[in-house]
Design goal:
This protein is mainly alpha-helical and 114 residues long. It has six helices and no strands. The longest helix has 17 residues.
Length: 114
């Protein structure tokens, strides 16, 4: 759904990483260059019959390479949707002191649960 705040993916990811104590480097590639590389990677994956998806695809670039806005007005009007947690509060909750520790699970224990 939506958190009710207009933001860019880059800004959101920067805040998300910041909540974990990580400062990302401010680097980017022009969209045209990324588009050409995605096309080249797609052709290489197809020509060499590689399994899976290339590291970057044109479909991925359509989703993350350009800003877009999702209109949630219909969900608000017809379903009464309102964000439960604000983006700022969510980021505060993501700070290490507020996050439960990650527990590693080995394959044998995972298989026993499955």
């Amino acid at each position: 759904m939506s958190d009710g705040e207009d933001t860019t993916l880059k800004s959101f990811l920067t805040r998300l990483l910041g909540s974990r104590g990580v400062t990302p480097k401010d680097r980017s590639v022009p969209f045209g260059v990324a588009w050409a590389m995605a096309g080249l990677m797609g052709a290489v994956w197809q020509a060499f019959r590689r399994k899976g998806e290339p590291p970057i695809t044109r479909q991925m670039l359509r989703l993350i390479g350009k800003d877009f806005t999702i209109d949630t007005s219909r969900a608000r009007e017809e379903l009464g949707y309102t964000p439960v947690i604000s983006p700022a509060n969510g980021m505060r909750r993501m700070r290490p002191s507020d996050v439960a520790p990650v527990v590693a699970v080995d394959d044998a224990r995972l298989a026993a649960v499955s």
